[in-house]
Specification:
Number of strands: 0
Number of helices: 6
Order of helices and strands: HHHHHH
Largest sheet: none
Amino acid sequence: MAGKRETPQRGVQGPGRLGRPQVRPHRQRAGRPAGRPPDAPPQLEKATARRGETVFASRVRVEGRADAEAQKVELFEQIGRLKMELEWLKKKPSSADGQRALVEPEHAELSVRRQCELLGLNRSTLYSQAVPATQENLTLMRRIDEQYTAYPFYGSQRMTA
């Protein structure tokens, strides 16, 4: 019959296993440490567990102290860095030219990148140079200003024509 499903044989895990017996892992009884014989008296288990807790607890305490000391040292270093940055920031002007003058490339503790980040200044702004206006451009701007002063009601279309 085409519609009937085959039931798997007992001990066979799948169609490709070809009769190998299914292996089930040994289950440990709850509350019993691994490696203890199942017939060990409960007092022995409790004593061993207590002894193990004290050994591991002392090791955890020592490691915990070392971690706490390392974290404390790291926090003090971070506080020192932040204080130095705050002192450096107190001299922050509002204009880009003033901010550009504040950046010290030879600063011992603050990189140029960090200085620009603290000032809110793009590094490209730090390195860009202002291009001076040419004489021709100044002449054109002066003539446009004269025209606008003489005829303020002209729109931009009439000014360009």
